[in-house]
Specification:
By secondary structure, the protein is of the alpha/beta class. The protein contains eleven helices and eleven strands. The chain has two domains: 165 residues, D-Maltodextrin-Binding Protein, domain 2, CATH 3.40.190; 121 residues, Periplasmic binding protein-like II (D-Maltodextrin-Binding Protein, domain 2), CATH 3.40.190.
């Protein structure tokens, strides 16, 4: 009996030592980063930029893998069910982590318990965009137009139940407007329709539309960011215009399966946060209209909790959580 206990104890020590050795050698093979969007999307671009900046400090290679579909649920589900060894990560926008759980159909993973926050890569400001031919040049004018033409304003939504959709629902409620949302599988198609006057308005991030704003082909009425965006300094914030309840920004961040060891998370965080002083990286991100953030797990966790509370409340108030 005593001998059996000794053997079991030695086996446990060996397993523990092997696990510790594996963690100390981390990473000893490429790390797969799943992005739940198609190539070329804002999340995709941000993931590739931040991963490339972190690689020299990690001593390993990130392999970026696009897994779009089901409003980002497919890619998120893959990572939630992956081995918690640090070799599969998720790089995502908020919706599959903080919003999708409130919208049917039911998820096959638990966003609150199946992930560990690693780091936010950057914040991407959101703009309220309209086609110039709509004839409105301010947020107040847009709201007045929508109220005078109930249900006639078409507003593009990329991903039903995603953060952009929920922002629209909040805008409609707080402004007292009736607007028709038009679902899109990609922001690119919505931009084509905006430019062709087939769509009236949309919430969009800056990179794919910056040149259209600068050329006057699209009009930015406001940013939902807490402060004006350096790339477009003449665009006012919603708070400046008397609508502070619309203040919001989209984070793009790294998450790992829930049981990923602390030592592995620590190595990832250290590598991802090192480039924060890289002037070239900061300049490139600023040109995109984004803000380099690199918040670690604790701060990231607080952002997730606040977003989950915010979006859950919007869904409840808008009755979006009821099965179709």
């Amino acid at each position: 009996m005593i001998g059996a206990k000794i053997i079991c104890g030695m086996a446990l020590l060996l397993l523990t030592a092997a696990g510790a050795q594996a963690q100390s050698d981390y990473p000893n093979r490429p790390i797969r980063v799943v992005m739940p969007v198609g190539a070329g999307a804002g999340v995709d671009t941000a993931g590739r930029i931040t991963a490339a900046a972190a690689e020299p400090y990690l001593g390993g290679k990130f392999i970026m893998e696009n897994k779009p579909g089901a409003s980002m649920r497919i890619g998120a589900s893959m990572v939630a069910k992956a081995a918690p060894d640090g070799y599969t990560l998720l790089f995502t926008a908020p919706s599959p982590i903080v919003a999708s759980q409130f919208i049917p159909p039911k998820l096959d993973f638990d966003p609150e318990h199946d992930f560990r926050p690693v780091a936010i890569g950057l914040f991407q400001p959101v703009l309220l965009i309209v086609r110039p031919s709509l004839g409105v040049k301010s947020v107040d004018a847009f709201v007045a137009y929508a109220k005078n033409n109930p249900g006639k304003v078409s507003f593009g939504v990329q991903g039903i139940g995603g953060e952009m959709h929920l922002m629209l629902e909040h805008f409609k409620k707080t402004a007292g407007m009736e607007i028709t949302h038009v679902p899109y599988n990609s922001g690119a198609q919505a931009i084509v329709d905006l430019l062709a006057d087939r769509l009236d308005a949309m919430f969009l991030v800056i990179p794919p539309i910056k040149q259209h704003i600068e050329s006057g082909k699209l009009l930015a009425l406001a940013t939902l960011n807490a402060k004006r965006v350096n790339a477009l300094p003449n665009v006012p914030t919603m708070a400046e215009l008397g609508r502070p309840e619309m203040t919001n920004a989209i984070w793009f961040g790294y998450l790992a399966p829930a049981k990923t060891p602390d030592a592995v998370i620590g190595k990832l965080v250290g590598a991802l946060q090192k480039p924060r002083a890289d002037q070239a990286l900061n300049a490139r991100v600023t040109t995109m209209g984004a803000e380099l953030s690199l918040l670690g797990p604790t701060e990231f966790g607080k952002v997730i909790d606040e977003d989950r509370r915010r979006y859950g409340q919007i869904v409840a108030e808008s009755n979006l959580g009821k099965p179709n």
